[in-house]
Specification:
This protein has about 700 residues and is α/β, with parallel strands linked by helices. Among the domains are: about 220 residues, P-loop containing nucleotide triphosphate hydrolases (Rossmann fold); about 160 residues, P-loop containing nucleotide triphosphate hydrolases (Rossmann fold), CATH 3.40.50. Helix content is about 35%, strand content about 10%. It is built from 22 helices and 15 strands. The strands form two sheets. Strands 1-8-2-7-6-3-5-4 form an eight-stranded parallel β-sheet, sandwiched between helices. A seven-stranded parallel β-sheet has the order 11-12-10-13-14-9-15, with helices on both faces. Helix 12 links the parallel strand 4 and strand 5. The structure holds one DNA strand of 7 nucleotides. Keywords: ATP-binding, Helicase, Hydrolase, Nucleotide-binding.
DNA sequence: CCAGAAC
């Protein structure tokens, strides 16, 4: 059971809500008969939470044979990359919307009603109380530029928000440097060339189920001529191990760095000859997408108005601090308004939210021009994010833009009572922002109608294409209107999104900003090679400092443990991870944002997208497994052109693996040995060095 | 394996 390894006690209960009770009762039921550990109550569960629902609502053992079938079909669907359980094509137009067998099984009415009756009200009351407390306490001395982060939306989603500023201040120059101008115009040059070939981006890939493609060909809008295929190069996607080299030809720079002994290490890195026996988990490096590089200086004089956004939206953007478009925004707004599918890669903190958010609002507005907003209308746009915090943050940016033209947004994410979300949907909203689980849930319950969605956005799109996310995302996208426009954004966008592009996008435009690599940023990357037994103390030493520090841990338990350890050492710290209830997650993040606590220990729930001003030190207590994770985690600092430091702790055994990861991330970082009490720790924590620099 | 995402 939960061992409080700390004498002071109390805090664990305060900040940590263990789930053993629920878990054990779950685990017995959620196991599926096919699993090897079947039948042993309390033994390890078969997998991720996503599987839980299968058995959960259909508890009786009688149904096991039916469930078994579901499970098998599901597995088959995973293998084949398509969702159908009954062998019929997954998407022959819309008809799938009306209750596919799997849905019925998984969400039978009884279970639904029950959950609503017993669960929601109680939790609702609880959350309400917490939120109110938060609200009260935030109201006072908080800097005015920050008041947006409190969980104020519990009452009324529709209320126009007064302050929106989860974004970096635009006044600082966090745009990519302008110092390279090989090219004059960011788009002009490719316009003339129209080979006009019909879409063919992924045509050459093998297993494309023909049954779900055809409907794409006769999509309504998309009148635009096809632009030259800058987009996906037509190379087939590599499966993990067969990649010849992890650094494609499109990553030319960095010749400056001393090359690692090439041949052997390159070919070996993905081979299972790694230290730990089972190296099933490989940091797959997908091909980078061939993208049109936007030259920052080419858009220097452009305004949002030039990009065809309406007056009100431009004004709302200005109030958000976005006076003029960042390069990624200047690049993506026109094609989005043209109705094109767009893929965009922009460095962390480069303004991606507005890059899709502003044109999305404009597009929805145009589509409704002339018609009244009717009560109970179903949403026209959908934005999917991988975490609830990110969904909230996106809404904080989009909502004021939408409200400026009379459109409504609502958040649809889990961990909070459904009632408010459902209520908003009932009244009618224009833009839904949320996470896959709850969206699919409400969709299945018939409370969220996605059939009118004309624009769907995937933020952190590559992440949304990873194992546990891909399928729900696919199912959700299939419910959107035929031919709906799709926008995929991420700082690490690569061919991992091929699965979605293949099925859902038509001749997408792909953009990135020229000269954006991680080294062009303002982040100082360091790797500390330490003895494992020193780790706790070194961490405490690093964290004991003035500025805001974000610590990443690999597991929830370790994140929790570290936050308690720091707290016990007299360094106020909070945790952020999935074992906390949503109220605590929201509150702990807000306390970090508002500066009421300076140390936050998080799992990768905070790795992507989350913006907190002024984090000047990111510590990776556990090194990440993937280079993308490294990039996203480190992207929590060095925002808005400020300087930041990323310190990664590793043991000696991990040096080589770490170097390989850094190579893949294209980051140079010195490895330095560190022991307890070393000056180096003082320097990194900024205790001796002048922090202003 | 972990992390994340629904009741």
């Amino acid at each position: 059971m939960p061992k409080n390894k700390k004498p002071a006690g109390g805090r664990a209960a305060k900040n940590f809500e263990p789930r053993y009770a629920a878990k054990t009762s779950y685990q017995d039921r959620k196991r599926r008969p096919g699993d090897s550990s079947v039948g042993k109550p309390g033994s390890k569960s078969p997998g991720h939470r996503g599987y839980r629902a299968d058995a959960d609502t259909a508890a009786p053992k009688r149904r096991w044979s039916a469930e078994e079938k579901v499970g098998r079909d599901e597995a088959r669907a995973i293998r084949d990359g398509r969702p159908s359980r009954d062998g019929r094509p997954a998407r022959d137009g819309r008809p799938s919307r009306d209750g596919r067998p799997s849905r019925d099984q998984r969400f039978d009415r009884d279970a639904r009603g029950d959950g609503n009756r017993s669960d929601a009200p109680r939790r609702g009351a609880n959350l309400d109380r917490v939120d109110r407390d938060d609200r009260r306490s935030f109201g006072d001395g908080r800097p005015s530029y920050r008041s947006d982060d409190r969980p104020r939306r519990d009452r009324d989603d529709r209320r126009p928000s007064f302050r929106q500023d989860d974004r970096p201040q635009r006044s600082f120059d966090d745009r990519p440097r302008r110092d390279r101008d090989e090219r004059p115009a960011f788009r002009g040059d490719d316009r003339p060339r129209r080979d006009g070939g019909p879409r063919r981006s992924f045509e050459d890939r093998p297993q494309r189920s023909s049954d779900d493609r055809p409907r794409r060909d006769d999509r309504p809008r998309r009148s635009f001529e096809d632009r030259p295929q800058r987009s996906f190069d037509d190379r087939p996607r590599r499966d993990r191990d067969e990649r010849p080299a992890f650094r494609g030809d499109d990553r030319p720079r960095r010749d400056d760095r001393p090359r690692r002994t090439d041949g052997p290490s390159r070919s070996n890195w993905s081979a299972p000859v790694r230290d730990h026996a089972q190296e099933q988990r490989v940091d797959v490096v997908h091909e980078r997408l061939q993208a049109e590089a936007v030259q920052a200086e080419a858009v220097a004089g452009t305004t949002f108005g030039d990009l065809d956004l309406g007056q009100n939206i431009v004004k709302a953007l200005a109030e958000l601090g976005a006076a003029t478009p960042f390069p990624i925004q200047a690049a993506t707004i026109p094609p989005i308004l043209d109705g094109r599918d767009v893929l965009a890669r922009g460095r962390t903190g480069s303004g991606k939210t507005i890059a899709f958010g502003a044109p999305l609002v404009e597009a929805v507005l145009r589509s409704q021009a002339g018609s009244k907003r009717v009560f109970g209308r179903s949403p026209k746009a959908l934005i999917l994010a991988p975490t609830r915090e990110l969904a909230l943050q996106i809404d904080r940016t989009i909502q004021p833009i939408a409200r400026s033209v009379g459109l409504f947004t609502t958040q649809v994410y889990g961990g909070v009572p459904q009632a408010r979300q459902v209520g908003a949907l009932k009244k009618g909203v224009d833009i839904v922002i949320g996470t896959p689980g709850r969206i699919e849930d409400l969709q299945n319950q018939g409370k969220l109608d996605l059939s009118d969605v004309q624009i769907a956005v995937l933020d952190e799109a590559d992440h949304m294409c990873e194992l546990g996310f891909l399928e729900p995302v696919q199912r959700i996208l299939r419910f959107t209107e035929d031919g709906s426009q799709k926008l995929l954004f991420s700082a690490t966008l690569d061919r991992e999104v091929a699965a979605l592009v293949d099925e859902f996008l038509v001749n997408p435009a792909v953009y990135e900003v020229a000269g954006e690599d991680q080294d062009s940023g303002t982040i100082d990357h360091r790797v500390l090679v330490i003895d494992h037994r020193d780790k706790a103390e070194i961490l405490s030493s690093l964290v004991d400092r003035e500025g805001k520090t974000l610590v990443f841990a690999r597991t929830r338990a370790y994140a929790e443990m570290l936050s308690e350890q720091f707290d016990d050492a007299g360094i106020p710290a909070l945790a952020l991870h999935g074992d906390l209830n949503q109220a605590k997650r929201t509150r702990n993040l807000e306390k970090m944002t508002s500066g009421r606590v300076n140390v936050l220990v998080a799992t990768d729930v905070a790795a992507r997208g989350i913006h907190v001003d002024d984090i000047d030190l990111v510590i990776q207590a556990d090194a990440p497994d993937e280079y993308k994770t490294y990039l996203h985690r480190s992207g929590r600092t060095g925002r808005a052109g400020r300087s930041g430091t990323v310190v990664t702790l590793i043991t000696r055994q991990r040096r080589r693996r770490m170097q390989e990861l850094l190579d893949r991330a294209e980051i140079d970082a010195p490895f330095e040995e560190a022991r307890i009490g070393d000056d180096l720790l003082e320097e990194l924590s900024g205790r001796q060095v002048d922090p202003t620099r």
